[in-house]
């Protein structure tokens, strides 16, 4: 299990990963993106930004990097960096399949990605990922599994994934939407030859959206590594967009709202890795302060009062524009 490497890591930030969704393509739904990225969003400009972030993250103790086929050229940018840094052999690399990037490097595209969890898509995208990341890939996740996803019932697909697992690749899944808990529990029941198929789960969890917590605890107890994404809720818990209660706690700690939001996640006993989705080196540095935030019971209670109804949270997320 590749994440066993992180268990022995001595840096406080080893359990904070860097996801490249925000910098692998010119358009994304994070708030404040207009200021975060350069006006020039050419392939070369975002490749340079991605490499800057990867260098900074590694230097500050980050050891998990997360990409996906649908994150524009994120796999390519990460592969380029790894090829230029052959000395780095202590990182864990995860990618995802199941969405195809369709925006053609445009911000105003009608559709930025198309979901398809079929076996044919897996085989096509597995070959594409292999061409870029080769044996550096540690974890391959089904992207955004929902309770009705055919990936939960396709026995032929399960057999192919188990075959990849037998060859040394860890198999996981990510979830999205208000029924994350149902998807997680359904995935935990998937077996091949009476052995659980999935070794990791990546899910949205933050102080606004906590509904998946019980299912994630069950996944952890079943032996899966839990990866938390969208810890700052696509920017809603960072900087000027944060609710007043979070701003107040952040002021008391003398750290950023983003660091406090991520620190709440790191406190959960079932969390293995929490992802930073930073788009700038300054954001990354602020995110990494989460490892040293100390919150008391009163502060945690005030933050717990921010939780939203899952349906309302996901409806609002679905309305965020691509910038």
Note down, in words, how this protein is organized.
- InterPro entries: AKR2_Oxidoreductase, NAD(P)_OxRdtase_dom_sf, NADP_OxRdtase_dom.
- Pfam families: Aldo_ket_red (PF00248).
- It comes from Streptomyces sp. R41.
- Residues 48-307 form the NADP-dependent oxidoreductase domain.
- The chain is an alpha/beta fold and 323 residues long.
- It has helices at 4-7, 33-36, 43-59, 74-84, 119-133, 155-166, 180-188, 213-221, 244-253, 257-266, 281-288, 297-304, 310-319, and strands at 16-19, 64-66, 92-97, 99-101, 113-115, 139-145, 170-175, 191-192, 195-196, 200-204, 225-229, 273-276.
- It has an eight-stranded parallel barrel, surrounded by six helices.
- The model has no long low-confidence stretch (mean pLDDT 95).
Secondary structure: elements and pairs:
Elements: H1 4-7, E1 16-19, H2 33-36, H3 43-59, E2 64-66, H4 74-84, E3 92-97, E4 99-101, E5 113-115, H5 119-133, E6 139-145, H6 155-166, E7 170-175, H7 180-188, E8 191-192, E9 195-196, E10 200-204, H8 213-221, E11 225-229, H9 244-253, H10 257-266, E12 273-276, H11 281-288, H12 297-304, H13 310-319
Parallel strand pairs: 1-2, 1-12, 2-3, 3-6, 6-7, 7-10, 10-11, 11-12
Antiparallel strand pairs: 4-5, 8-9
Pfam families: Aldo_ket_red
Protein name: Aldo/keto reductase
InterPro entries: AKR2_Oxidoreductase, NAD(P)_OxRdtase_dom_sf, NADP_OxRdtase_dom
């Amino acid at each position: 299990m590749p994440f066993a490497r992180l268990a022995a890591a001595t840096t406080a930030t080893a359990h904070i990963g860097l996801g490249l969704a925000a910098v692998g393509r010119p358009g994304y739904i994070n708030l404040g993106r207009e200021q975060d990225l350069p006006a020039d969003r050419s392939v070369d400009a975002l490749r340079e930004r991605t490499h800057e972030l990867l260098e900074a993250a590694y230097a500050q103790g980050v050891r998990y990097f997360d990409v996906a086929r649908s994150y524009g050229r994120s796999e390519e940018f990460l592969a380029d960096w790894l090829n230029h840094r052959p000395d780095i052999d202590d990182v864990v690399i995860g990618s995802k399949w199941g969405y195809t990037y369709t925006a053609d490097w445009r911000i105003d595209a009608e559709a930025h990605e198309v979901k398809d969890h079929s076996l044919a898509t897996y085989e096509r995208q597995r070959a594409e990922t292999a061409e870029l990341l080769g044996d550096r890939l540690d974890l391959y996740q089904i992207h955004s599994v929902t309770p009705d996803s055919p990936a939960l019932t396709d026995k032929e697909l399960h057999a192919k994934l188990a075959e990849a697992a037998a060859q040394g690749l860890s198999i996981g899944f990510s979830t999205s939407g208000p029924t994350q808990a149902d998807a997680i529990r359904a995935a935990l029941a998937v077996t091949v030859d009476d052995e659980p198929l999935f070794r990791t789960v990546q899910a949205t969890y933050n102080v606004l959206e906590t509904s998946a917590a019980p299912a994630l605890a069950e996944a952890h107890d079943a032996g899966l590594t839990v990866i938390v994404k969208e810890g700052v809720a696509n920017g809603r818990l960072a900087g000027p967009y944060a609710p007043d209660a979070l701003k107040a706690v952040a002021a008391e700690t003398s750290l950023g709202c983003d660091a406090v939001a991520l620190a709440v996640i790191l406190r959960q006993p079932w969390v293995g890795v929490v992802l930073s989705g930073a788009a700038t080196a300054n954001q990354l540095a602020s995110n990494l302060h989460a490892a040293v935030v100390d919150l008391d019971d009163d502060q945690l209670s005030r933050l717990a009062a921010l939780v939203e109804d899952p349906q309302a949270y996901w409806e609002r997320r679905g309305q965020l524009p691509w910038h």
